[in-house]
Fold:
Amino acid sequence: MNKILPVLFTLSLMLASQFCGAQTAYIPNEGDNTVSVINVATNTVIDTIAVGRNPYAVSVSADGSKVYVTNLRDGTVSVINTATNTVSATIFVGVNPFGISVSPDGNKLYVSNGDVNTVSVINIATDTVSATFRYNGMPEGVFVSPDGSRVYVAIEGDYSVSVINTEADTVSATITVGFSPIGISGSPDGSKVYVANDGDTTVSVINTATNTVSSTIFVGAYPLGISVSPDGSKVYVTKSDTNTVSVINTAADIVSAIITVGHGPFGISVSPDGTKVYVVNEIDSTVSVINTATNSVTDTIKVGNGPRAFGNFISTHKAVGIPTYSIDAASISLYPNPAGNQLTIHASSFHNEAVMVSVVNVMGQEALSYSLSFGEGRGEALDISGLAAGMYFVEMKWEGGSVVRRFVKE
Structure:
């Protein structure tokens, strides 16, 4: 087996552009039952997709191949194929589905149904409900931990966050937070969860090791949407009453900047490279683009009517123009897993194919990239000694197909 060194990073990154499309943002427009598709590189709307009635929340799969949108009035989830920007399936869930989050491995979907106080667990392979959790209060935002082992649900009427153990499908903890928790997100390493408390102008910081609130940060009136930067150093919070975004310095747990955006800011997402923040303004029907280096709005994009975009709405790795191919994806495996300083890819069905291999973290950032040639039955060893501990995805793209595999770096 050949040990491929990271000096190939620049060359392989150039070659990878042949296979990868632009990053895109998917903005549900509740007023006209559509989703606006924004090219993040040019900040222009490149497509509009018809979905169900009153689309509200959104979640993007880890590999960027699917986008899930809740439709409040229909009680459904629209599944968007990002390669074609078309709805490939519609899943029936509960009444008024609010929050939504897809598991890192892409196998499960967690949907909060506000009017019936439940969370539905969807088996994506069968598009069926595999479990249902019932609460005393209204569930809102949903966040799945980076390793997929826990789901955090903001319970608005109960002033709490429910922690679901995904392996056992049971509630493992209930954490008291601020008044009327709505938005929820977490750090890339899974050590913290951030909760926007709409009723008391604060953000609760949860230590996930102890399931306790370690800090409470005053951000200002009516915090709703929340998003964490890829490096975990900043948290961005929308505040609908003042038409602003608060920037939290996570090292000190204080607000370091306040940025004026459009009217009625709601949903918010940080770009995978951390250089931009996209803020969805419901009243203006616009998206404000913030430069994170200067904390200033550099662009405003007109979208559909009454956009909400509650959740993570930026697709990080969109594959385009990939035809069907005869390589058996099931033959591709990673070992050892968990891995130390070296990870081996074994692909028995390749026959001297050129393959682009990217190692991507849970925030969609490319950490390593290689251009490999797989011979018949031969494995290739990757040097991953420079990676921090955590969960990663290996994306493999060849002339006729692609596949994603997950591994843990110890």
Q: What stands out?
A: The first helix runs from residue 9 to 16.
